[in-house]
Model the fold of this input.
Amino acid sequence: MFDPARRRWVALTPEEWVRQCTLLRLHAAGYPLEVMQVEAAIAVNGMSRRCDIVVHSDGRPWMIVECKKNEIPLTQKVCDQACRYNTVLQVPYLLLTNGRQEVIIEIDYSVGRLIQLKELPPFVKKT
Done:
């Protein structure tokens, strides 16, 4: 399958299918492909990890997207994984998806609280 964000062909695994569908969904919702980084490398507690998708706004991470294949339920463990990545990136939004379900979370750093949203936040590029 051709990945429009990475601009290359990739193997179509079950998780990659979810990732590609999510990329297209975000793009259709107004998120430019140019601001989406797929398999973004980060270091968490000295260990190399990869975020499925990181959406950037004004050159800074803005949303972490964690994709799982359809059979994997969106459990607390999946949320914890995205939150661990966020200890490094400090984004305001998390999106967890398995292609059938999605959980959208806004992080309120002022009170240290996660707020589940009903829909994607609009992508706004600050100038």
In short: Residues 7 and 33 are 10 Å apart (CA to CA). The domain at 2-117 is CATH 3.90.1570.30 (tt1808, chain A).
